[in-house]
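Supplementary Note 2. Why include the ligand at all?

Several targets in our set were suspected to adopt different conformations when bound, so apo predictions alone were not considered sufficient. For every target with a known small-molecule partner we therefore ran a joint prediction. The input for adenosine-5'-triphosphate is given below.
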Amino acid sequence: MVSIADTARHALPGRFERPSALAFLLYALGIALIVWAIDGSGWSIEELGKGIPSLADFLSRCWPPSFERIDSLSKALIETFQMAVSGTLTGIILALPLSILAARGLTGSRIFGSISRGLFALFRTVPDLVWALIFVIAVGLGPFAGTLAIAVDTAGFAGRFFAEAMEDVDKGPADSLRAQGVRRSDAIFCSIIPAAMPSFITTSLFALEKSVRSSVILGLVGAGGIGLELKVATDMFDYQTAATIILLIFALVLVVEQAGSFARKRVIEG
Amino acid sequence: MVSIADTARHALPGRFERPSALAFLLYALGIALIVWAIDGSGWSIEELGKGIPSLADFLSRCWPPSFERIDSLSKALIETFQMAVSGTLTGIILALPLSILAARGLTGSRIFGSISRGLFALFRTVPDLVWALIFVIAVGLGPFAGTLAIAVDTAGFAGRFFAEAMEDVDKGPADSLRAQGVRRSDAIFCSIIPAAMPSFITTSLFALEKSVRSSVILGLVGAGGIGLELKVATDMFDYQTAATIILLIFALVLVVEQAGSFARKRVIEG
Amino acid sequence: DNFKLAVTDVEGLERLQTEWGPFKAELEKATGHTFEFFPVNNRTAAAEALRAKRVDFVVTGPAEYVVINKVTQAKALIGLSRPDYFCGIVVMANSPYTKPADLKGQKFGMDDIGSTSGHLCPSQLLTDFGVNPLKDLSGITHTSRAVAHEALKRGDVAAIGVNYTSWLKNRGKDTSVAQGSFRVIARSGDLPNDVLLYGAHVDQAKAEAIRKVVIDNKAKIAESIISVGGENEKFKGMDLVAIEDKNYDPVRKMFAAIGHPQYSEFVGE
Amino acid sequence: MSLAFALDESTAPALNAPVQAAVEIRVRALAAGYRTRGPVFSDIGFDIARGERVALVGSNGAGKSTLLKTLMGFVAPLDGSVEIFGEEINAMTPSKLRGFRSKIGFVAQKHNLVSRLSVLSNVIHGTLGARSGPSRWVQALAPQQVRARALAALDQVGLVDLALRRADCLSGGQSQRVAIARALVNEPRLILADEPVASLDPAAGEDVMQVFEEVTRAAGATLVFTTHNLDHATRYAGRVLGLCSGGMKIDSAVDKLPEGGLRGLYS
Amino acid sequence: MSLAFALDESTAPALNAPVQAAVEIRVRALAAGYRTRGPVFSDIGFDIARGERVALVGSNGAGKSTLLKTLMGFVAPLDGSVEIFGEEINAMTPSKLRGFRSKIGFVAQKHNLVSRLSVLSNVIHGTLGARSGPSRWVQALAPQQVRARALAALDQVGLVDLALRRADCLSGGQSQRVAIARALVNEPRLILADEPVASLDPAAGEDVMQVFEEVTRAAGATLVFTTHNLDHATRYAGRVLGLCSGGMKIDSAVDKLPEGGLRGLYS
Ligand SMILES: Nc1ncnc2c1ncn2[C@@H]1O[C@H](COP(=O)(O)OP(=O)(O)OP(=O)(O)O)[C@@H](O)[C@H]1O
Ligand SMILES: Nc1ncnc2c1ncn2[C@@H]1O[C@H](COP(=O)(O)OP(=O)(O)OP(=O)(O)O)[C@@H](O)[C@H]1O
Ligand SMILES: [Mg+2]
Ligand SMILES: [Mg+2]
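The joint prediction is reproduced in token form.
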């Protein structure tokens, strides 16, 4: 009888590997961090319940969306989208080569890798407000400054995600090419990038969408945009117009997502 | 002689597949979109060059960073980080189950998929300010409202990236399990999620970092935070303090990235 | 009682948001109530919190008071007076503009929409000088002060509307140009005080009582703000005064100048 | 035939004496293929009885893997029908199909292990069809008995020593053996194995084929395997199916195979 | 020996008459393994002369793939040395190593095709070692001559018809053959093939082994292949290396193999 016996002939291996002292310390630290964080943020489910009536009141004031200014709002949305497209595209073109350097283990240059990762981190850390200032000083108020601000923002975001997507890819095909003397750069373009392509599309289209959503920065550089309209609407308690704007942006976001899912499908399924 | 002949015995296949009419239209549309976008954003390299001297002057005014208020600034950073951790964690916990529904082709439920994707898009589209309003009304001013606002923001972002990471994973192992009657849900947890884990880590830690950086939302709900300090500093032309704050955040971002790269390495290499 | 007090991004009170300890202690000692402070840098959030009874008192600016009063029926309690609270219109000294009328057809930089001294006041000022800010200019850029300042220096905007005192201070910090390279071509009268207001849900008698004690102990309370030292020295000269809603009618008028007449109806009219 | 009987048959497979008679897989006029590319094969029909060992042979690209995937319902037929355990699989509700599949053990040509988990966890996943839940997602959480069973399955393929090794640190043959252990661990009623010994060394290949043989003999399980090793096909199978140019060109008991007949499939 | 001579030898390999004499691979006291786990094999030494065909055999997990990876410099040796074309590879600069590798054709056990590109593009990648650049990243951009050559390589493995098929829409054997075409397309001086016929049907396996044989015979290339097919090992190789329990237990010309000797490797 060869049915699998319920008792093993061999000693069962241990369930857990004994973690190293360092690993144990790190786990403990991680848990402590979480407890500390939750402790500090004043959780209270009770409060949540009490607020429902006022919330209903607030939402009722947002309804129905006002379509009075739909013309000028659509125009603002389209202008914003225009700047978002060119800014995001610039950012992506900036991020691609740097992200290849930034991806660990791809080019073998540790120094350039650290520099590009640092650069991406810097791009993200310096806030919108300061980028606005820098580009207004550099190129003056207007859409160009807005485009550049969006580009830098996009580069910081996309660069990081591009790099890590390339790190996550199965290295087998690239190694097989390199075994035949193919340069790292060729192997990256021939095998790493095709494999990371769906992730690139996700990241790029998210960046585009993000640029539209966070277009308040365009207002800061005097380039108008839908973000400014939304800010004015909420600042002036014009919630019905705000609701319209949010719906407009929501529609755009859905369209961009649809485009992304179409492109991803083509890449994944061929 | 069997050396590969330079001329083939077989007719060479065409270089390009003839694109379908629809695909052709879409490509043309895409290119038109890009031209239109760049056209509208007022590119001018000339301007960029002219601005360099004033830019240098501006940067000189940011230097050296002022460490006068380093105590209170560090405190603000730590408080911000605390709220960011708990908010991001909540957001991720919210996003995970929904993202499983949202990932195309994972659960087979198209309706729930569309609903969760729509929900994520909504989470992202409704701006910070409006989430702040909603949570202030719901739970009052303070860190709890801030945590919730961060959580929603994180959920919208992380949910989308989680879902698409799971879509990108090689479906082979999951299919092999399902061939043996394993439930979709088990197959997801046993094979899709382990494969998508590096991407989950990237997304989660980026979300954490983003929550710290975009902590202006905490200022909206009366929870203070480093974002508010930075805004005040630039409004007051106190560029040296602003530089300090940016450096502090930059350091935190680098630490978070390091933690991420450590965790990813463990997952990828075992 | 335990009251919740929000402080919106009031000009000049930034430090109060982080260093309000002594002030709070003094206030609590004087009134016998406890206060919880929340720095809220957005008036919409503060207003909605008031409406949802999530906050009881708000310290805010004049324009903010007007809209919050309209949206939530909150009432003014105490004015926090500030010396030299007025706005001006600044151009470059080497520009041809010497009076507001010269700015017709030019670009103008201002603070966020709805800011008292950075938007409402300069708009009113232009109107007073016969320039309709909505029609006669070729555009208003609402941006941060730092950006507006740099844009003025570049010539991207012909003039900027500023809170006069803070502009003076900020001008001092800009070492890239001589202080004399700017010209102020108009100044407004003093603006009404910043306000401590109370929500419609707060017991009126208690509010009145608080007003009385605070006014009675104003020297001590003001001192507590200044005593923190350092940056807070600039509050020297502040006063706490009892105020009336009608003091803000001039501000209501300004909302018409910026094209939001829904806030310019005077209460009782 | 009463429902009660059918149930009886599926719950106590090894006890019914004349198991050889029951038809486990019935294929009729089957055609299948991938999207726009037209059928890989068409008009295929055969019955496989319980306890049979069937080798499926054919040249590269003949459609062996596709046929196995069609039998499991992963590739929808363009035409024809597939019945497993007496029911048409393409008409089943998803949950019913799952129930049917949980009696199948499957070895994929590409092994398809979960590379970031341990070998033992991968084998334990094979038991999820019978009983789902987080306790079987990783070996550390699994009940003692399940772990012991998985270890016994690993022992059948000679890999006990590597139980805690990560699945992406295996040699090609080791990973194939893990896939086999995963298919065996749940004592399946039907084993579908796609080139299960392609990466195995000669001795391991014999061992695995012998395990398959014993499982079918002792537990009455049915085995369908593809192979390019004609020696294995004739020694370990009772019957050979030969796919060629889109059709089933050979369907014959091993001892009735035409002289040099299998060679003819590869031209 | 002068540098000039060495250069001459490497630039005009097919012309030097007594090519059989030159040592293409020289391994001395080699030990290699993965990270913490200790060596997979140690103290291995052998010479392979130009034009030889060597079969590397051994049980699953014996270290065949690891040895091949060590020969190419992908796994750093724990001890000992590997010389290829007369130079120690672990002492080379990266660019020099690349130059050496560009004369190698490699077939990985897992095929390692780029799944989202066409078969033809995958084969064209094989020419990148000789000449890099975007024109060889995808077939649509490649010079006519390169495409023709890639197609000829595909023809050698019998896959011309699938040139424009995406590499993830292939059967197991088809994808292995693409990997072989990719290794052959650049007319390598040394072919390292890791179980190149494991997924091939018997006829295709013979064809591929014959192609290998002809390439070594006509172009003077050297072939090292691993296999579990002992028949192939003895028919297509002139010499057999047998790995077992961490050492090289067999190193013998095929006609001098001990009786039943290869069987002894698998116990
Ligand atoms: N995912 C796919 N999409 C499109 N065509 C495919 C796909 N998989 C396989 N094919 C094609 O279908 C045919 C049958 O493939 P299948 O994998 O069934 O062959 P096989 O008999 O298993 O071959 P092998 O012995 O090489 O594994 C082949 O011509 C192959 O190119
Ligand atoms: N990436 C890795 N990390 C750690 N150990 C590995 C790794 N790859 C292989 N091993 C181990 O090294 C040993 C040798 O593996 P190798 O792949 O060289 O075997 P092989 O002779 O090619 O076997 P097969 O015939 O199964 O392909 C095995 O015990 C295997 O478990
Ligand atoms: Mg197959
Ligand atoms: Mg191997």
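DSSP finds twelve helices and no strands in chain B. The radius of gyration of chain B is 25 Å. Comparable summaries for the other entries are listed in the accompanying table.
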